[in-house]
Predict the structure.
Amino acid sequence: VYQIYNGISPSALEAHFHTTALTFYDTTHTAATGPRVYWCPGDPGMSTAIKTALRSQIGKTFGFFLHRGLQVNGSNTTYAISGIFFARIMAVELTGGPNAEGFIIQPVGYTDNWVMTSPDAPSTDRTLGRLRLVR
């Protein structure tokens, strides 16, 4: 919840990723070979505090981590972070079942040449509910 309100600090990046500068593409990790992956632990569930924090941020732009896969172990999940996507939070409804849930975001253009997304990214297997992009 703290990170939703305040962002990720360099010390939190260092603790989770063992670096303060995430580099997904370089001379070794290219579009042909794929991005560098950073493994990050997380809880796939949504607490009331997280829902409240996300709702308070509607209209603001955030960087969202993208992942290439995950390892689920009960309430502990490890994500293979492989990029960042920038978007504005438009609406948050995380209750009511699979047809009513939604975390609606609007893509925001970012001009760095290293920001990439993949249409072939794997499913989250409903660990985030329904994600819908809007213009």
